[in-house]
Amino acid sequence: QKQLLTTDLRMGKQQIDIEYPLTTKSHNIVWNLISTAHGLERWLADRVEECDGEFILTWGEPWTQQDVRKAQLIEYVKYSHIRLKWDEDYAEGDEDSYWEIRIGQSELTRHLTLLITDFAEDDEADSLRILWESNLEKLHRASGL
């Protein structure tokens, strides 16, 4: 069962941690889903482009209003995790915020888990949790994991 944890931070933001169990033991399959534009496009955004450490994520169809956000890759450890920072967090001078997708492993079952870390303003924390849960359910539907 997934776990939701919240930690208070400075500057009115909360750290949100979500642990999501997967039904696989294959680091390679999970890594491709969380670290490549094609993999992220299957579950996180409608379109993802990656070039030189910059990810451009787009939600919505081309004929409708789209939400486009850019994130910079700030840490990449193969088969472990990726950590990104939204461009608007850089613009606002927010040094502490990032979002991370990490591969964990249950010691009991040896199955993998996804550990999501993200940051949200106090009044947006619940919405962000719901968004991640929805995306993780989409990952399960798209991949069976």
State the distance separating the first and last CA atoms.
Answer: 14 Å
Summarize model confidence as the mean pLDDT.
90
Would you tell me the structural class of the helices and strands? Answer: alpha+beta
The fraction of residues in strands falls at 35-45%
Main beta sheet? 8 strands, antiparallel
State the helical fraction.
Answer: 25-40%
Number of strands: 8
Order of helices and strands: EEHHEEEEHEEH
Strand order of the largest sheet: 1-2-8-7-6-5-4-3
- Structural Rg: 15 Å
| Coarse shape | globular
Number of helices: 4
- Uncertain segments are 6-10
Please, could you describe this protein's structure?
This protein has helices at residues 27-35, 37-41, 87-91, 125-143; strands spanning 3-8, 13-21, 47-51, 54-59, 67-77, 81-86, 99-105, 112-121. 26% of the residues lie in helices and 41% in strands. It is built from 4 helices and 8 strands. It has an 8-stranded antiparallel sheet with strand order 1-2-8-7-6-5-4-3. The protein has 145 residues and is of the alpha+beta class. Residues 6-10 have low confidence and may be disordered.
Main attributes?
globular, alpha+beta
Helix and strand arrangement:
Elements: E1 3-8, E2 13-21, H1 27-35, H2 37-41, E3 47-51, E4 54-59, E5 67-77, E6 81-86, H3 87-91, E7 99-105, E8 112-121, H4 125-143
In short:
The protein is an alpha+beta fold and 145 residues long. The protein is built from four helices and eight strands, in the order E-E-H-H-E-E-E-E-H-E-E-H.
